[in-house]
Amino acid sequence: MKKIYYILLYMLFYTVSTLFIALRVKDLDFDPIFFVMSLILPIFLLSIGRYLSVILSFFIFLIIEFNIYIVLMYHKTSFEICVAIAGSPIDDVFTMIEAVPLQVFLSVIILQSLLMFITWKAAFNRPKVAAVSLACFGTMLGGRILLKSDIGVEDLYKNALVYDHFKKQFVINGDAELYGYLYGLTPGYLGITLTELTLALSYNTGHFKSVPISLKGHDVTDPVITSKNTPKVRHIVMIVGESDSALHHNLYGYRDYETTPHLKNLYNQGQVCFIPKVHSGANLTRDAVPMLLSFYDADHPNKLLKEKNLIELAKDNGYITYWMGAQEGTNVYGSSYGFLGHFADHYLMPHDTNMAYSLKKQRDQMLLPMVKKEFSSLDKSKPYFIIIHLMGSHTDYIARVRKEDVKALPTAGSYNQAIHHTDHSINEIIELSKKYLGDFTLLYSPDHGELLRSPDLGEHGIYDGGYDQYKIGIYLAGDNHTNYCQQAETLRSDNGYFASPQNKYLLLTMMGYGVSQKGLDYIKSHDRVVNSGIAFDYDKIPQPKRKKQ
């Protein structure tokens, strides 16, 4: 086989694979002229001699294959995904790698072997060609910088809010705009990879401009709040779940397995009520959790930084506040809710605490003994607002499962077993509240749902994943819990759904705050969500493409 055929095969794979990625970059328009010009790069790679060509091509194609896998998983790639990859804690990285099917690794090994063989056959040593192609590529990139256009990356502030591990405080990253620019500079795998590397290097070395954020409290209260009165509930417990789909909860109609036996029994005994027909405010944790506990919404994300959140409001009305979570809040991805957690009088997150003990791993089974220890030491004559943030049924599901869950549901799959564990956790926290708090109301709400591909494999944050990743279950327990389930009915949007961000108005009522009916009516008539980083009307979020029959 002649060398020219190997060169054509190399160019064909590079062109098709990079075009596949470039056409699926969210937030940016495809630039055909720039894409054609970018094909100068593989010419450079082939002209530097066999050994260098094979080494560099190995890493380039590995990056391309990784980006293809991300696109196949999420149907698009985005700046949000770049941040998630660059800023996820190491525990999450390992569990996500463990969740990748074995056939994917085998496919990559086979494909890489084939591509290295083609590269070896196609490569040639032409220093002048290499120099000219590299100069052309550099000139093209320089022209791109000079002729840059508006990138249009939404909610850049979320990526500006980070925890500086060197200064030990939350800051506004002055280089955030730079990362967005790098993302838009070279649409496709080059820009994505450059953005991820820059994000990871800057956050892990502390090499970025930063402005400290004060955690002493905000001066601005959202105008929807009209008055502050005597609290109606002495002790409020808010449990935030993770990737917990109502489609797999018994009280929401799931019949295949007894995934939530405790909640079902408590409901039958009149100790728990649930809110039907619910959807989450977002399909990603970093958006969904702030929507539960601040006035951040799809169209006003900057309220997270500008207005009092629910922890501040609780403190203003006399509550002692806690944030106890199994999810890291000081990594890049978790900074939006880690920021909220730091407003609490007492906070505990993996590798980050101002309490007497620390949490080393993102495991609910490690968090709950600490919750029990703290509850047992509380002075119940004082009012408390306690937030408990679970890992719940976050992928990799098997990492969230106990032996007891497998024994109870041996054939159910790891996702159902993880929900069984969450059911146990909720029940345990309810029992602790009864024993140590007495007068309490508890609210459980997940951040978002999950798209199940199989009993052991699922995902969320999919741009065109549709409604399943929004379907969640919300439960209330404790004193007067039925009153708050009834109040929830008055907070339904005009389309008939109760949106999880409306939870804040239940919590505010418990805390003794009055809320403007006019403000609520406006919110109810605008059911808006954040779908993979972009604001949508809930009934207009992108849906999965139907497969042709």
Tell me about this structure.
With 549 residues, this protein is of the alpha/beta class. It folds into 2 domains: 3-212, no CATH class; 225-540, Alkaline Phosphatase, subunit A, CATH 3.40.720. It contains 22 helices and 19 strands. The strands form 6 sheets. Strands 6-15-12-5-11-8-9-10 form an 8-stranded mixed sheet, with helices on both faces. β1 (161-164) and β2 (169-173) form a beta hairpin. α1 (3-22) crosses α7. The longest helix is centred in the first third of the chain and has 25 residues, at 50-74. The model is unreliable at 149-156 (pLDDT under 50).
How many separate domains make up the residues?
A: 2
CATH topology of the largest domain: Alkaline Phosphatase, subunit A
Mean pLDDT: 89
Report the span from N to C terminus.
Answer: 40 Å
Proper CATH architecture of the largest domain: 3-Layer(aba) Sandwich
Pfam families: Sulfatase
Keywords: Hydrolase, Membrane, Transferase, Transmembrane, Transmembrane helix
Protein name: Sulfatase-like hydrolase/transferase
GO molecular function: hydrolase activity; phosphotransferase activity, phosphate group as acceptor
